[in-house]
Design goal:
The structure is a single chain. By secondary structure, this protein is of the alpha/beta class. It has two domains: about 140 residues, Rossmann fold, CATH 3.40.50.2300; about 80 residues, Orthogonal Bundle (Arc Repressor Mutant, subunit A). The chain is about 55% helix and about 15% strand. A six-stranded parallel β-sheet has the order 2-1-3-4-5-6, with helices on both faces. Helix 2 packs parallel to helix 3. The longest helix is centred in the middle third of the chain and has 16 residues.
Length: about 230
């Protein structure tokens, strides 16, 4: 059972999501709240697995709330509910570890799929804003948000791992990566887990940001330096 907390300052949206999601198999709505402060109180009490986080809320917005939640409960997955004009908010939410970004108005099936996806440890980005998110990654790479993994860890990456990182940088899903590299999805997931451990990164979002900063897609960290027997 996936425990979900809903946070949205619009009562109609909040209650509608609660009613629909409560009728879905394997989903339990632990609470539905109206602002970031209520999110923190509810998290302490109910320990949800996934938070559906409206980005614009009174008292404490979704970005600041994401930062606090991820600092204190890193295992909780957060899906940001956003609109097309929320660029700055998306930028900041990425830094703080949100796992998903969806436009308000997605179908309920898409929302349920997103919840299941981030709960399993993967990222979920609405296709309509994927290009915008990639552009924001690039902005972050040029800004002062720098991820240092250490040269030794980088040099331990194999050619296949670098290819997978490159695909993640381009925003591909595990299935798309598997198809592109003739691997199974399970193998791709295992590779990603190994990569995160090697680089000491928290999640796929940090990996994508690091990949852009390291220019994996352009130089592959001088892939000729890496040896692989596979």
């Amino acid at each position: 059972m996936i425990k979900v907390l809903i946070a949205d300052d619009q009562e109609l949206i909040r209650h509608s999501l609660q009613i629909v999601l409560s009728n879905k198999q394997n989903i339990e709505v632990t609470d539905a709240v109206a602002d970031g402060q209520e999110v923190i109180r509810s998290v302490r009490k109910n320990k949800p697995d996934v938070i559906l986080m409206d980005i614009r809320m009174p008292k404490m917005d979704g970005v600041q709330c994401t930062k606090i939640i991820k600092e204190n409960y890193p295992e909780i997955k957060i899906i940001i509910l956003t609109t097309f004009d929320d660029d700055e908010y998306i930028y900041d939410a990425l830094k703080y570890g949100a796992s998903g970004y969806l436009l308000k108005g997605v179908s309920m099936d898409e929302l349920v799929n997103a919840i299941q996806t981030v709960y399993s440890g993967r990222a979920m980005i609405n296709p309509d804003i994927a290009t915008k998110v990639v552009r924001l990654f690039s902005q972050m790479a040029k800004a002062d948000f720098f991820i240092d993994t250490g040269k030794k860890a980088e040099q331990e990456l194999t050619k296949t791992e670098l290819k997978i990182i490159e695909q993640i940088e381009y925003g591909l899903s595990n299935k798309e990566i598997a198809d592109a590299l003739n691997l199974s999805e399970g193998t791709v997931r295992n590779y990603i887990s190994t990569i995160l451990n090697k680089l000491k990164l928290r999640d796929r979002t940090q990996l994508a940001i690091w990949a852009i900063q390291a220019k994996i897609g352009k130089k592959g960290l001088n892939m000729e330096r890496h040896n692989e027997n596979e």
